[in-house]
Amino acid sequence: MKAISIISVVLILILSVSAVSAIPLDIQIKNGKIPERVVILDSKMNEVYNSTGKTNTSVDLAENMYHVLVYYKGVPYHRVVELNRSTTISLDLYEPSSDTGILISPFNHILVRQSGDSFEVIEIFSVQTPENTSFKGKVYLNIPENSFSPRSPDVPMWQDENGFYFNLAIPAGEIRQYAITYGLRSDNFEKMIPLNTSFISILIENPEILKSYENLEPEGVVEFDGKSYFSLFTRNATPGSTIGITLSPTSVSRVDLGENKTQKWYFWMGVGIIGAIVAILGFQGYRMRRPDIEELEARKDALLSVLERLEKDLESGEISAEEYARLKARYKREAMKIMEKLDRIKSRMEVDHEEEE
């Protein structure tokens, strides 16, 4: 068997002024790639180490939970570690591609609701990289031409002659999810699909405003976030294909759809409008938010719902056994990562609470 080359980068952090011992962090790159930069952030997302020589010496280093970012060709590989003892991180670094054809979007959920005489749209979509290729480049959002005031809550959004886009830098084998909002000036909503997308749904808060739809199938009434919506959906959409709906403003504020007509709706990897946006780590000067337990719990619940939905889709024959096995392994792995992170945060909070007492 061919030997795997190991490149180790050892970083010494002094975790307390009063402490006399140093805590070594050993980063092992298994496939022989050489990282261009290593950045370490504390739990408040302050930079405490940078391999380029930049260090924030005013940060209290008496913590033991840190975020480690290993950059390779502009793509950050992120790990959360506890540096209260000697720690080793093993990573594979992969060559990045700017070809959006390698990307898959497991879901795209679009919420449409009336706002006065116009309409408000909230899109939540995912981007997934293959197991052995990272991505670094532009992903165009294909916001409809009749839209206005587009924005993204947490992620910088750019515009050129081809439209609005995100600059993404995503490691191999990972999933990111993003949200954008905008208004519609007219009653026609037409969306061109930017990526190969497994599942797309449009949720309409008041079905009275829906007049017609194109390249979509009615799912019926669904329940989300304590409210009932009329849902349209499609599967396995390809880049350049379009979906569309025609709307008409109504004076009815909202139609009561009735509890007996609602059905449980499982997001395919969606955490929905509750604001769980996975941060992009590839922007210059970026600092991650402090981990939020409610957000992580929502992401965990969404992943567990995905796994339950996969079981049903396998039984109904909507996906093959091979596709089921691949998706189940990936989403289960993501769920385990989130649960491990939750355990670390909760353990740290318990320690902080005991220290306060």
In CATH's first tier, which class of the largest domain applies? Mainly Beta
How many angstroms does the end-to-end distance come to? 55 Å
Q: What letter string, H or E per element, gives the SSE order?
A: EEEEEEEEEEEEEEEEEEEEEEHH
Percent range for β-strand residues: 35-45%
Query: Largest beta sheet, briefly?
Result: 8 strands, mixed
Overall morphology: globular
Question: Structural class of the helices, strands and pairings?
Answer: alpha+beta
* CATH architecture assignment of the largest domain: Sandwich
Report the average pLDDT across residues. Answer: 75
Q: What is the share of helical residues?
A: 10-25%
Explain what you see.
This protein has 2 helices and 22 strands. It folds into 3 domains: 7-93, Immunoglobulin-like, CATH 2.60.40; 100-274, Immunoglobulin-like (Sandwich); 293-356. It is an alpha+beta fold and 357 residues long. Mean pLDDT is 75; it is low at 14-21, 55-60 and 252-291. Helices cover 17% and strands 41% of the residues.
